Amino acid sequence: MRGAPKELELFFDSIALRKRVLEVLSKEPCYGFPSPDPNCGHGERTASVLLLLGHFSPAKDALPEAGIILNKRSEKVRQPGDLCCPGGGVEKLDYLFARLLALRGSTLSKWPAWGRLKAAHPERAAFLSVMYATGLRESWEEMGANPFGLTFLGPLPRQCLTMYRQTIHPMVAWMSAQKRFRLSSEVERIVGFPLRALLDPGNYACYRLTAPPHLNWGFKGESEDFPCFVHSVDGRRELLWGATFKIVTRFLELIFGFKAPALTGLPLISGRLDENYVNGGNRNCAGP
Fold it and tell me: Do the domain assignments include residue 120?
């Protein structure tokens, strides 16, 4: 398969894959989280999301393999139909939960870089614990993810959403086998992408979006092109783009050295943003 790493066994060996992710995300600059980012302005809202990894069967009668687990937004929220990581803004309860996560024997204390981060940058360690606590709570509320069935693997570089004045801090976690999910009204369904598919350059396209001028989406012209990932899941074509696309492809680059292909020459997919997409709903997953 084009773009796939040589270590194909990682797709089917959860222990080896988690070891690889831990080794990468426990090194600088990852464990120096959160380092200053000149691309982020001031006054943004802070949010956390969980990039969930796990084993699942990509098709009927197929062997379970490693992939990324995402939520598909329902029609009741802003940006319906988009794929996103579970997450949202920090709430008061998250600070108490964060203290529990940082105790000896907890999931954070078992992360290889936790001791170094806590000793060298205690304020960053405290912030990371709050971000992970927020991600755990939101994933429970949105999709019923069992927090005791998740293993923390490390943070990813933050993403800045200038349109929504929001800074997203992605946390990577491994989800042990969970067959049933309890979806909130924000989530239409769960979508899983195999890592093998995400590492295939042939699954990427150019997403050309248009929007009415009054929506003030911020396009440089009548339309704008974005990179996207396209893959069929259960007979449905799913498209990943925006901030979640950036989070996922940054993970693939760090762990496997994979870079999504440039827009030039990619198949073209057209889309249009309307009033319901931009302004619908009051509460949603963090970011596009």
Answer: yes
Low-confidence stretches of the chain (pLDDT beneath 50): 1-3, 36, 282-284, 287
**Rounded to the nearest 10 degrees, how much is the dihedral formed by the CA atoms of 226, 255, 65, 147?**
-90
Q: Which helix (H) or strand (E) holds 67?
A: strand 65-73
Helix and strand element counts for the chain (H, E): 7, 12
Q: What is the separation of C-alpha 266 from the centre of its chain, rounded to a whole number of angstroms?
A: 23
Q: How remote is the C-alpha of 283 from its chain's centroid?
A: 18
Q: Which residues lie closer than 8 Å to 135 by C-beta, 6 or more apart?
A: 48, 49, 50, 86, 87, 171, 173
* Prediction pTM value: 0.90
Q: Is 1 a member of any domain?
A: no
Q: What is the pLDDT of residue 218?
A: 64
Residue 208 lies in a domain: yes
The CATH number of residue 81's host domain is 3.90.79.10
Whether the Cβ atoms of residue 25 and residue 155 lie closer than 8 Å to each other: yes
Residue 37 lies in a domain: yes
pLDDT tens for 51-105 read: 999 998 877 777 889 999 999 999 888 888 999 999 999 999 999 999 999 888 8
Say how many domains are in the chain.
Answer: 1
Distance, C-alpha 168 to centroid of its chain = 10
Q: Please give the torsion angle defined by the CA atoms of residues 5, 152, 181 and 135, in that order, rounded to the nearest 10 degrees.
A: -110
Long-range contacts of residues 97-103, Cβ cutoff 8 Å, at least 24 apart: 97/133, 97/136, 97/137, 98/126, 98/129, 98/130, 98/132, 98/133, 99/129, 101/129, 101/132, 101/133, 101/136, 102/126, 102/129
Q: Give the residue numbers spanning the domain of 66.
A: 8-279
